[in-house]
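thought: fold this chain, then report.
action: predict
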Amino acid sequence: MILFALLYTYLLYLLILKSFCFFNTVNEWGGGERWHLDIALYLREKGHRVMIITLPGAVLGNRAEAEGIPVFYIVLKNLSVLNPFVLTKLVKVFQSQKIDTLVLNLSRDLKCGGIAAKLAGVKNIIFRRGSDRNVRNYFINRYLYQKVVTGILTNSQATKRAILSNGSSLVDPNKIKVIPNGIEIQGFLDKGFEPIQPKDKSSMVLGALGRLEPQKNFEFLIPVALALKKKGIPFEILIGGKGAQESLLKFAVEENQLEEQFRFLGFLDNPKRLLMSSDVFLLPSLWEGFGYVIVEASLCELPVIAFDVSSNREVISEASGFLTPPNDVRAFCDKIAYLYDQPDKRKAMGKAGKSFVSDQFDSKKIFERIETYLVGQ
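observation:
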């Protein structure tokens, strides 16, 4: 009986526990890369086997290796799908690691990794789309979405709508599952930090965080700063992050004589350093898949001012922040001025934001939903 029970337990273990591969060839560190690492760590903790495929030197790979997750490095380009050596290499990895489920990130990852996984006989091929951008209804995309992927996982209703913007001829809506990103609430709250600077009650500190890329639209903060100076509001803008537009932004700051109002802090391993030094969080992004930074800012009890685009309405409640028309300097500045004049309201909105995101995006609940979805495919 004992032998039978042990055999039964082992067979149940084999049936329940899976082997996952997370495929993400982004070099920088952002919300998508964080999602892949967080879910990989969670699934490993639950007993599943996990590995990551990424670019050599990518931040994701470095962090995964530091956590003891096996990493396979590969260089991919948009036309790598036409390279039989790359495809063969990936097929061998999937087969040797007995991958049950592959989770892909970029369109180039999907083209190359997805097709290689199909050739390797991987059962579940999941395209995790976290960007609220329309998908062109080309033949190659129809083939990938209809014949290669077994499921599409999005982080917001806005991202799902973007995929379906050209109608259901691209993909069956029932193939798309929406599960928002999660964050380990208590872990984030308990994490130690060294503030960038002590808060100065005589002026307002405006925090902004993200890659310095066109999507994040940090150049919008230049006319915002000029308008705030004209209103006579004392302020400073802290910007955390690095990217291709860093030199351009710094030049614009100097050209407009705003050096005293802007501080560029570079990449920050711990965003709490910036957030806990700020009074209000600004998000001028032109689109977002899911605003991790909004959740983190809210947990730091900061009211948020952002554009009414993408999934921002799903992450910012009416009590926790303001949504303005995209690139409307006057509307954006009016909200900043209101929060400057109303410090009590600012505090109340910050507390409301913390309560909202704690209830909606606790990783324990979210990760359980993601595991159920991935295992159940």
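thought: worth noting. The domain at 15-182+362-375 is CATH 3.40.50.2000 (Rossmann fold).
final: tokens above.
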